[in-house]
Amino acid sequence: MAIYLVGDVQGCYVELRQVLDQADFNPKYDELWLTGDLVARGPDSLATLRYLKSLNERAKPVLGNHDLHLLAIWEGFKKPHRKDFLQTVLDAEDAPQLMDWLASQPLLRQLPNSHAYMTHAGLAPQWDIQTAIAQAKFVQHCLRSDRRYFLNVMYGNEPAAWQDAKDDDQRFRYSVNALTRMRYCTQSGDLEFIHKEHPEHNPDSDLQPWFELDQSLDKAQWIIGHWATLDGQCPHPNIYALDTGCVWGGYMTLLRWDDKKIFRVPSVKRIC
Asked: Is the pLDDT score of 272 beyond 70?
């Protein structure tokens, strides 16, 4: 059995299947771990969800911000963004089953027999690893116990600091933001959501990438998506950044965990 990890699919179903074929992925024996944002801006989110759901326990995604946004749209709290291609998902006969499957996925996974973890965005500098694990479980419990309520209170940038999260609603919102939206933080580790640039082009000297502030990474490896402008090249040696912007005309990137071999196919946009 091999473990393969893939960056943000974003509905780019064709490229996902191409990179899996390139790696000789065999769903009878292999596992596919996904960094989140399975859906949204690409052309075929419906086929993506159906395929991943069909893999049963061989597919091991974490949820990203676009996945949670789709669930909020499904529940009637939000409307699709102008650039989203989600209507076919919402109109599908099996949409209820797909939404239930999506909502059942965690926000953090630990790779077997290792100190390696996967989340969509990263590890909040104001958390240690055990807190991140506990809060990811808390979010998953909230979505299972009262999905509609918590999706409705999910949106917002506050609290930006973990110590300011005083009740379950605030702890839920902070945890979702840290695990699915974070890129930069203030010097004290507060979350910031405006800047998306590569760290070499960060215009705000008061901000740092979350991984430059996080001491827990000295003893763990972290697999992320979300930050496409990193283009798969994170300056921290213990970070594997797998979102290489396929949906924006970049590449779909797949990592075989055992030997760290990279497989990559160009976006259909790039080759058209």
From this structure: no
Q: What is the 3-state secondary structure (H, E, C) of 242-266?
A: CCCEHHHCCEEEEEECCCCEEEEEE
Q: How many domains does the chain have?
A: 1
Cα 97-64-239 angle, rounded to 5 deg: 140
pLDDT for residue 82: 85
117 has pLDDT over 80: yes
CATH of the domain at 21: 3.60.21.10
| Best CA proximity match to 165, nearest among 202, 127, 113 | 127
Tokens representing 28?
């009878």
**CA dist., res. 64 & res. 87, Å (int):** 19
Structural domain containing residue 256: 3-271
Write out the two tokens for 4: 């393969």
| pTM of the predicted model as reported, rounded to 2 decimal places | 0.96
